[in-house]
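[Discussion] Sanity-checking designs against the backbone

I'm trying to build intuition for which residues belong where. Below is a structure token string of 264 positions. I'd appreciate it if someone posts a full sequence so I can compare it with mine line by line.
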């Protein structure tokens, strides 16, 4: 058994939305380390993309795009098609959170989270379908990885109504899309991160030691933890995993008897 061939991504092309920072950037670093020939990243802010491309190197190409609309999803797919005739790996990572009191929770807080966390992964995957098909075969399937959250599996202490709903929805949507795309040799899975330091999870970023005390593993997630999960699902090692959600949280969801611990 050749472990190198199981986990290599040599020669493959990937797109990671929201890849300029946080969990997306961790995943980009992992895909590059595993051998991807090219990784495209997208985000709304051009300065963040430029900084990430400068840091990550010449194999990374940045495309500024707001994919919270169907038009934006189609625009990003068209931009990728200008450079590539196939796409091996799509990581739907871009996301948004919103927290506010129940009685004042606004429509824009609902729409922002649901549009970016649920609608965009569906319509971007749809828009990239032909490029994914072009890369896919029974011997080497294309991969779609949706980034959910443990907040789609359990409650956190905050009033993040649309975030909770959207992260639960993307995990079930993963199953439904997986059931459709498997016949095209496109395998769809999800990752549910726990506490990783990021702008979205300020608790883990700013008070990681304190957050770690409530995690069974007694630490917050590191970049290598997220990178390893993405490499596993994207590589030959994960070819028999379809429609599944990989929980990467130090044991909060499946190895803890307590509830209401903050997740990402």
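Best answer:
Here's mine. Compare freely.
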């Amino acid at each position: 058994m050749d472990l190198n061939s199981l986990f290599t991504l040599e020669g493959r092309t990937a797109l990671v939305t929201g890849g300029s920072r946080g969990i997306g950037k961790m995943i980009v670093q992992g895909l590059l380390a595993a051998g991807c020939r090219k990784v495209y990243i997208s985000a709304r802010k051009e300065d963040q993309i430029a900084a990430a491309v400068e840091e990550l190197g010449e194999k990374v190409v940045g495309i500024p795009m707001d994919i919270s609309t169907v038009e934006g999803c189609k625009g990003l797919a068209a931009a990728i098609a200008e450079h590539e005739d196939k796409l091996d790996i799509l990581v739907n990572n871009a996301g948004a959170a919103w927290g506010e009191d129940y009685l004042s929770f606004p429509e824009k807080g609902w729409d922002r989270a649901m549009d970016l966390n649920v609608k965009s992964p569906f319509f971007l995957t749809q828009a990239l379908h032909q490029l994914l098909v072009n890369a896919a075969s029974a011997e080497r399937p294309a991969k779609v990885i949706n980034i959910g959250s443990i907040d789609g599996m359990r409650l956190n202490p905050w009033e993040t109504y649309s975030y909770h709903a959207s992260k639960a929805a993307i995990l079930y949507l993963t199953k439904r899309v997986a059931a459709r795309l498997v016949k095209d040799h496109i395998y769809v899975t999800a990752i549910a991160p726990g506490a990783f330091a990021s702008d979205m999870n300020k608790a883990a970023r700013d008070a990681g030691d304190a957050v770690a005390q409530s995690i069974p593993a007694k630490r917050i997630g590191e970049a290598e933890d997220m990178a390893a999960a993405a490499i596993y699902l994207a590589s030959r090692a994960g070819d028999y995993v379809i429609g599944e959600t990989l929980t990467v949280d130090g044991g909060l969801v499946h190895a803890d008897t307590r509830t209401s611990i903050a997740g990402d």
